[in-house]
Amino acid sequence: MISTNKKQLAGNYYSVLLKRLLVAFVFMLASRLLFFAFNFSNFSGASLWDWLWFVIAGIRFDISALFALNGIFILLMVLPIPWRKNRFYLGFANLFYYMANTVGFLVNFIDIIYARFTQKRMTGDIFDYVANDESTMSLLPQFVVDFWYLFLLFLFFEGLFIYFSRKIVLRKKPLHLPLFSYYAFQLAGFLIAIFITVIAVRGGFQLKPINIITAGQYVEARYVPLVLNTPFTIMKTIGQYGLKQVRYYDDDTLNRIYTPVLKKQDIQVLYGDTAFRPNNVVLIIMESLSREHIGALNKQIGNYPGFTPFLDSLIGHSVVFNGFANGKQSIEGIPAVISSLPSLMNRPYIISPYAGNKTYSLAGVLKEKGYHTAFYHGGTNGTMDFDGFAKMAGFDSYIGRTEYNNEADWDGNWGIFDEPFFRFFATEVDNTRQPFFATLFSLSAHHPYTIPTKHKNKFRKGELEIQEAVMYADFSLRELFQTISKMEWYSNTIFIITADHTSEAYLPEYRTRLGMYRIPIIFFDPGEGNPVISPVTASQVDIMPSVLSLLNYDHSILSFGNNLFNREQDHFAVNHLNGIYQLISDQYILEFDGAKSIGLYNFDTDILLEYNLIDADRELAVELEKLIKAYIQQYNNRMVENKLTLVE
Description:
Elements: H1 13-38, H2 48-69, H3 71-78, H4 87-118, H5 126-131, H6 134-138, H7 140-146, H8 148-166, H9 179-202, H10 224-227, H11 230-237, H12 251-257, E1 261-262, H13 264-267, E2 280-286, H14 309-315, E3 319-324, H15 330-339, H16 362-367, E4 372-377, H17 386-392, E5 397-399, H18 401-404, H19 418-430, E6 436-441, H20 466-484, E7 493-499, E8 521-524, E9 532-539, H21 543-550, E10 557-558, E11 572-577, E12 580-585, E13 588-592, E14 597-602, H22 618-641
Parallel strand pairs: 2-6, 2-7, 3-9, 4-5, 4-6
Antiparallel strand pairs: 1-10, 3-8, 7-8, 11-12, 12-13, 13-14
Helix pairs in contact: 1-2, 1-4, 1-8, 2-9, 3-4, 3-9, 4-8, 7-8, 19-20
């Protein structure tokens, strides 16, 4: 018999464990509901019953995250060992309980704001993203200031969690059991607890553990962030560095459906000869310039003024396509624009294992034609590893905040204000030998949306905080064009203006899975005066082959984009978010989860994407599914095998 002279802490280990887990679950669910509350307007079209379903459907993912976070605490509480009653041991177990759950709640709170910009829950790549971007940590105090109410709410939330958890304590009581029976019961409890934990983390008894993509079984793709929680998405993707090769089709069938190989004759479609035209090229990538902000591209909204008066005027002299971004972050947008590489994996290309692959890029291709190439970005050197990517992409030089070398024009957060950096760009390019390819990436339309003191209250504010900064960026663009239009090389230059990604949206049609990717893709040639607003679907990856077409480039290339000036090619856009692939073609959008199509919408007649036609128009869905499967197969397999260039 176990002695009754000593009190044993053996009576309510499992009671304490269950109650603590219940408290943590309630707060995990509450942190997800706060995500609902603060982002309600970003998920339009849902009924009251839909919102109730989002709560219920997400419980499976909440439980999985809960048990994964508390795995060490559970193990320490159920291990059948004699010193489990020791107060230092219990303190050690409690430390894991409070730390793990606090981190889980914290990332849920952070995503209340962060997900507005990315339209997805954070994933494991966030750690590499922060590690490769020195500005992120330096901006943390600014985020706390701007979103102070969430910081205070989190402290209150955490205080309540600790208060209720501390109410649950082990009770000392005498225990009269044979030693063998006592440890037999403890061992049985240990095995049961471990079994339950494994099943909970897996999300059930099914063959494969639940993953981000599982959320698509419960809700439409646009509502996936509401069902998931951030601890779950981070833990499920951390350490996921690579792509899996897929084989939907044999090689012959695959290449008949889709090939990224653009032959010389696919590029040389604009002129009657094969001679290369060495025009200068200036590519301007405007930070967070959603189509929503541009008045000239929103004439369907009555008297909508927009926030880009200069760009509106330039559009009147340009060829403009129905543009879409290929990703939701700058680190995804830059490789798409420069190298025709869409973001079809959980980790951005720049920080993926494939960043060292040999690829084509506008800089590399034009450098071989004798161009001087330079990438200009007013941000702090090293931001998102853009300088490293620029070097890999073949740019002769990267010019950032360090090279600008005048901290008087620093915005206090990200880098140099657009207006002075654009002036600097104009001067630098004017002193560059021709032909040249210059990329200018703007900065100021980025949180916290700082406006230079001399321009305070000069620009109109909109419904979104970013829109005043967009007006400042547009003003800076006007100043740039006024300056360079007087320079000798201007008339012999092709200008392309686009965005790295979209911003958060206000208008309902820009909050959908389609609208959240809409950006401008503008081609401006000072020597041409025929404006065109083209309905052709375009995306960032189409920019490289289209520029090469304007230059009458005389070689074949490999590109995951198409030549927008070739009417014989199919034109479409592909995005990837929350494990769902999205194909935009003509007036239809297809959602594909890697195994099957889950959504088909006609965005011409259904701008808010409320009516799923997947069953009503199965034939069209099958045709579009063939294309997206072939696109994925070409992308994954070529990326893994490092076959992103051609041998001529």
